[in-house]
Write a structure and sequence with these properties.
The structure holds 3 protein chains of 3 kinds.
Chain A (H helix, E strand, L loop, with lengths): L1 H31 L6 H19 L3 H27 L4 H23 L14 E3 L2 E3 L1 H23 L1 H11 L1 H7 L3 H26 L8 H14 L4 H17 L10 H14 L9
Antiparallel strand pairs in A: 1-2
Chain B lengths: L4 H29 L7 H16 L14 H23 L4 H21 L1 H4 L19 H26 L1 H11 L1 H6 L4 H27 L9 H15 L4 H23 L3 H4 L2 H19 L24
Chain C lengths: L3 E8 L7 E8 L4 E5 L6 H8 L5 E8 L2 E2 L5 H7 L1 E4 L11 H8 L8 H10 L1 H5 L10 H13 L5 E5 L7 H16 L3 E5 L3 H7 L2 E6 L2 E7 H6 L1 H12 L3
Parallel strand pairs in C: 3-8, 3-9, 6-7, 7-8
Antiparallel strand pairs in C: 1-2, 1-4, 4-5, 9-10
Helix pairs in contact in C: 3-6
Classes of the chains: A mainly alpha, B mainly alpha, C alpha/beta.
Chain lengths: 285, 321, 239
């Protein structure tokens, strides 16, 4: 029983991270109609930018976090304006492939700048708290609180602001959004801002939980897609739900299968979803 | 017989370009003919390579295999097993939209990689399989390399002629019709899923052949050799650069991109030594930039498909969503 | 001067012209209905006016200004709004939010206009917090029309506003369209319930093979034997 609770805690931590990534993928898929394959590497970029401030300038992670997020957003918007914006007029599949190329290019840049080896934010060993037999790492608390704060901010943005509502509208019905007179280009840019900011945060949290490697975010891409598909494409709230489900089931899977096959869990869920209900659990596209 | 260094390198270059050409042709059947977005090329590559390796290596090694079977048997088995994997995958994924198919196939490549890495009884795990024999390896000097180049060239020729004939046959016309306007062809009584599955499996079988040819050429394979992303990416860039839908384009793309890839090797050799270890990243950056330029300026490739416009550059986005 | 004038319109999707020299005008206080056989290009004509189908030849003017092939968001800002036939609400957004999206281009206070729309469609006021996707077909149509009214358009384009609705809702929607027109909004609509639509229209066009074959007042078109036999006969039983 205690094992299951322990795995549940790990699952919530991982699920929160996946959820942050999946929100962006889901919104981008709904609005621009393509699966953004560079999302994982956006996470990695955010994590390494934070590392640059932490290791290079000796900043505390809390100070590095906002700046890393901001820089990642800048890169994402730049890539959109230079590349994706011009490709949008062509078929979505060209966007998809372009983003696949961007994923590899981002990873190559990260390897060039920071090298292929594993690094960490803080090499001091963190002693977990022991509460009723459970081991809880202080970092896990940070991650969960961080994820909750960001999701709350996202919720307020989507519900209270004109741009947030327009974003939901466009994820619902892109064509109708256009004939309604919504400034779709503006919404697209805001979608990149929100999506890449959450991706950067997810990357930093993941690096905090584990270690930094150039494949950090790519390894999370399948779970992130799985969460977005599970929650329904274009549904940010569904993506959060999907993230938690994927995170928890990935960690729980070690009760039944060898831990090396943990990455296969997300993929299995994707396959089941695609066969059983291609539109997602929470009725998306 | 000893060849001068430059010619020796040319043989090496042409052999690998030919092997990439096989992959590019296989992908062309899946994407160019049928419009199926396979991002799991590495999975079929690996299955082909490992099948050939396990069947043809000499006994001993602490994993399954070491059957010491002839080269041709390994080749045939690689094609068959790769096709079999494609049938299993295809039954599930064949009716998926482009984006979902891409996600699904990339997941399969990932799982294949996990299996290669962790099922040491089968694949020798991360240590990989060494000593994969090249045919006629006992002959003196550079003769085996020349003969192997001839074998690869023959394979390219056979695949090229076969799928080129299929393209012109009614089967190919149905594929194009399905790709362009599925509902109409469906209404015309064609079993859409069957045709799509056939294209997927055929393309995968060709990739399995490529994988086997690669294993015998390189003589050593390991899970690290199949970074699913980079192998898949390079083959895709070859097809897109050359012109999807066009087999000549697929081959030309393989040679041009492989040429650029090798050429950047010379370039990175000129870099300071501390950056040289990261030459792979520089190459990917360059190939990635090249891809983006192609997508922006000439998405139809160097030799576009003749006839009706391809679905990926026209206004029609029907089959890409 | 007419509010909307479309002259000699040729255009269509891809390489095929669906419209072949279509002409039409809408005056500032009118309801104008386009009827015609299936495939005549009725919806295409409305979409072409709204910049959703490319016009290859011909001109459209709105309030005296050329708007041929103008982008929809520009037209919305100029006082024209459009209700597609299908997928015309944002299903996960609440009724209120759908209306807010209609007012996206406005920077002034639009609460009075929203109140006016709830007056026209009281049932929406009751369900203002509900996601539009959960409403019935008729109520969704009301949301769609309400959304289009939020920009205070001078011209409202409606593509088959009663398609797929139950007879009760058909009557209700058409009644409300008259009410909206009486508030000073010109209406151009495609309608398959031709008889009912012509009863409330000031004028109508019969579109055949991409050209407006007959133009007359609603009453005259209803009385026109040729029109009656071709387009109203089979429909009468539905009404």
């Amino acid at each position: 029983m205690i094992d299951i609770l322990q795995l549940l805690i790990f699952g919530i931590v991982l699920g929160g991270i996946i959820a942050l990534g999946a929100v962006g993928v889901s919104l981008l898929f709904g609005i621009l109609r393509f699966a953004h394959f560079a999302h994982g590497d956006m996470m990695t970029l955010g994590a390494y930018l934070a590392f640059a401030f932490v290791a290079g300038l000796g900043w505390p992670l809390l100070a590095a976090f906002p700046l890393a997020v901001l820089l990642t957003v800048g890169v994402a918007v730049l890539i959109d304006q230079v590349l994706y914006r011009r490709l949008r007029r062509k078929a979505p599949v060209i966007l998809l492939f372009s983003s696949f190329g961007v994923a590899l290019m981002l990873r190559a840049i990260i390897e060039l700048v920071w090298g292929p080896d594993t690094v960490v934010y803080d090499s001091a060993i963190q002693l977990p708290w022991r509460i009723a037999g459970l081991r809880i790492k202080p970092d896990h608390v940070t991650i969960v609180i961080g994820a909750i704060v960001l999701v709350t901010a996202l919720h307020l943005f989507l519900q209270r602001t004109r741009t947030g509502k327009a974003m939901r509208a466009m994820a619902d019905e892109p064509d109708l959004a256009q004939v309604t007179g919504i400034n779709t280009e503006r919404v697209v840019i805001w979608t990149w801002i929100i999506g890449s900011a959450l991706a950067a945060a997810a990357g930093i949290f993941l690096a905090l939980d584990t270690r930094l490697v150039p494949l950090l975010g790519w390894n999370l891409l399948l779970p992130v897609f799985a969460a977005a598909i599970l929650g329904g494409i274009g549904r940010p709230y569904g993506a959060i739900f999907g993230g938690l489900v994927i995170g928890i089931s990935t960690e729980m899977s070690t009760l039944a299968i060898a831990p090396v096959y943990k990455p296969a869990v997300a993929f299995t869920i994707i396959l089941i979803m695609l066969i059983w209900r291609p539109t997602g659990l929470l009725r998306g596209r | 017989m000893e060849l001068p260094g430059l010619i020796s390198f040319a043989v090496f270059f042409l052999t690998l370009a030919g092997i990439y050409g096989v992959f590019s042709l296989g992908l062309n059947v899946q994407w160019g003919y049928s419009g199926q977005f396979n991002l799991g090329i590495a999975a079929f590559w690996a299955v082909g390579s490992y099948t050939a390796a396990i069947l043809t290596t000499a006994p001993g090694g602490g994993h399954l295999g070491g059957f010491g079977l002839p080269f041709v048997v390994g080749l045939a088995a690689a094609v068959l097993l790769s096709a079999l994997l494609a049938v299993l995958i295809g039954v599930v994924t064949v009716n998926l939209r482009t984006d979902y198919l891409a996600i699904g196939t990339i997941g399969i490549a990932e799982i294949v990689r996990l299996v290669l890495k962790n099922e040491a009884w089968l694949t020798n795990g991360v240590r990989g399989i060494a000593g994969i024999p090249r045919p006629f390896a006992d002959l003196p000097g550079d003769l085996p390399a020349l003969i192997y180049l001839a074998i690869v060239a023959l394979a390219v020729l056979v695949v090229f002629v076969a799928i080129e004939r299929l393209y012109r046959a009614p089967w190919g016309r149905v594929q194009r019709a399905l790709r362009e306007n599925e509902p109409a062809t469906q209404a015309a009584g064609k079993n859409v899923l069957r045709f799509r599955l056939e294209a997927f499996v055929l393309g995968a079988a060709v990739m399995g052949l490529g994988g086997a040819l690669y294993a015998h050429f390189i003589a050593f394979i390991s899970p690290e050799a199949f970074d699913p992303l980079i192998t898949t990416f390079v083959v895709w860039v070859m097809l897109i650069a050359g012109g999807s839908g066009n087999n000549r384009g697929a081959l030309l793309g393989a040679f041009v991109i492989w040429g650029i890839w090798s050429g950047t090797g010379f370039l990175t050799d000129l870099l300071p030594i501390e950056i040289q270890t990261r030459a792979g990243s520089v190459r990917i950056l360059l190939i990635g930039a090249l891809l983006q330029i192609i997508l922006l300026s000439r998405p139809e490739g160097l030799i576009p498909e003749a006839g009706p416009p391809t679905p990926d550059d026209g206004e029609s986005t029907d089959n890409s969503r | 001067m007419s509010l909307l004038v479309a002259e000699d319109i040729h255009g269509g999707y891809g390489g095929v012209d669906i419209l072949n020299s279509a002409n039409l005008r809408v005056d500032a206080d009118e309801i104008v209905v386009i009827i015609g056989p299936n495939g005549a290009g009725k919806s295409t004509l409305i979409k072409a006016v709204f910049g959703l189908v490319p016009i290859r030849r011909g001109t459209v003017t709105f309030d005296g200004n050329a708007i041929t092939n103008q982008r929809p968001d520009v037209l919305v800002a100029r006082g024209m709004s459009y209700v597609p036939q299908e997928r015309n609400v944002f299903p996960t957004l609440s009724v209120t939010e759908n209306l807010e999206m209609g007012a996206y281009t406005r920077t002034d206070d639009y609460s009075a206009d929203m109140a006016a729309i709830f007056d026209i469609f009281p049932v929406l006021a009751e369900r203002r917090r509900q996601p539009a996707g959960q409403l019935s077909g008729g109520q969704r149509q009301m949301v769609a029309i309400g959304r289009a009214l939020m920009v205070k358009p001078r011209l409202l384009l409606l593509d088959e506003p009663t398609a797929g609705l139950s007879p009760k809702f058909v009557d209700e929607i058409l009644e409300r369209i008259t009410a909206i027109n009486q508030l000073g909004v010109a209406v151009l609509m495609v309608e398959q319930n031709a008889r009912r639509a012509l009863e409330l229209a000031h004028r109508g066009y019969v579109l055949v093979m991409g050209a407006c074959r007959i133009e007359d007042t609603g009453a005259n078109l209803l009385a026109n034997r040729e029109v009656g036999e071709a387009f109203l006969g089979g429909r009468a039983a539905n009404d």
